[in-house]
């Protein structure tokens, strides 16, 4: 599980604290670890709590050294404490930097939403509206492409679609087959993620894989109680 893997990586990392090499590579590695912890949702309190547990166990271990003088043990403890506080400082700094970056991303997203609203209000053409929505969704999510497919209740199929960021050759081969992923999302009004990971029930098609797509998400497009497409 993720928690077990995290515990293993932390154990390995804490063991490296006492190796005595605290150069730029150590700082860089520590910042990468802190960024990863922030991304998966571990706050700084959790990490400092892990340090507290590690330090408690380490001090208990030091007290079992029978051949060490009290002065030597004290110096060892002071050195270890310095190392840990240095590392905690790196941890807090990483979390603050990650939080600032998150706030900046949110600011950019709000600005993009405002741009979409302005552009939609100034356009009456359906194709232009679709293009603005797709361009905005790409900017908001960091995806490299987007597609909107509109559903016709009369024809009972996806009768119109527009794309942004996809090459013409790819678009020409796109199909919305009967009973496929698109119809499933439209009927259930729930999203589906497609990729080639083992845990994913919806694997990529040959077309998307050949294009270099690693993952995509399919979402229902609705207006109040009316289903419009994907």
Strand content: 5-15%
Describe the largest sheet.
Answer: 2 strands, antiparallel
- Report the oligomer: single chain
Distance between the termini: 34 Å
- Helix share, percent: 55-70%
The largest beta-sheet arranges its strands as 1-2
Number of helices: 8
Which shape, going by the Cα principal axes?
A: elongated
Rg for CA atoms:
26 Å
User: Would you identify the regions where 5 or more consecutive residues have pLDDT less than 50?
Assistant: none
Mean pLDDT: 79
Class of secondary structure makeup: alpha+beta
Written as H for each helix and E for each strand, in order along the chain, the element string is: HHHHHEEHHEHEEE
**Tally of DSSP β-strands:** 6
Write the layout of secondary structure elements.
Blueprint: H1 2-17, H2 24-39, H3 44-62, H4 70-121, H5 126-141, E1 146-152, E2 157-164, H6 168-173, H7 181-188, E3 192-195, H8 206-211, E4 215-218, E5 221-223, E6 226-229
Antiparallel strand pairs: 1-2, 3-4, 5-6
């Amino acid at each position: 599980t993720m928690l077990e893997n995290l515990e293993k990586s932390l154990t390995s990392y804490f063991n490296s604290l006492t190796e005595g090499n605290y150069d730029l590579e150590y700082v860089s590695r520590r910042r990468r670890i802190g960024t990863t912890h922030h991304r998966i949702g571990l706050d700084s309190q959790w990490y400092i709590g892990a340090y507290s547990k590690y330090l408690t166990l380490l001090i208990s271990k030091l007290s079992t050294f029978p051949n060490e003088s009290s002065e030597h043990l004290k110096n060892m403890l002071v050195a270890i404490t310095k190392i840990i506080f240095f590392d905690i400082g790196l941890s807090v700094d990483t979390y603050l930097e990650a939080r600032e970056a998150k706030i900046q991303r949110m600011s950019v997203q709000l600005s993009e939403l405002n741009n979409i609203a302005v552009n939609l209000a100034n356009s009456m053409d359906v194709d232009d509206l679709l293009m603005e929505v797709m361009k905005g969704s790409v900017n908001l999510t960091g995806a490299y492409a987007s597609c909107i497919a509109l559903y016709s209740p009369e024809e009972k199929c996806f009768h119109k679609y527009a794309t942004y960021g996809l090459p013409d050759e790819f678009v020409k081969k796109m199909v919305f087959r009967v009973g496929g992923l698109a119809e499933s999302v439209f009927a259930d009004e729930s999203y589906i993620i497609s990729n080639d990971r083992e845990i994913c029930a919806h694997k990529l098609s040959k077309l998307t894989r050949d294009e270099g797509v690693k993952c995509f998400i399919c979402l229902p497009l609705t207006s109040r109680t009316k289903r419009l497409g994907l």
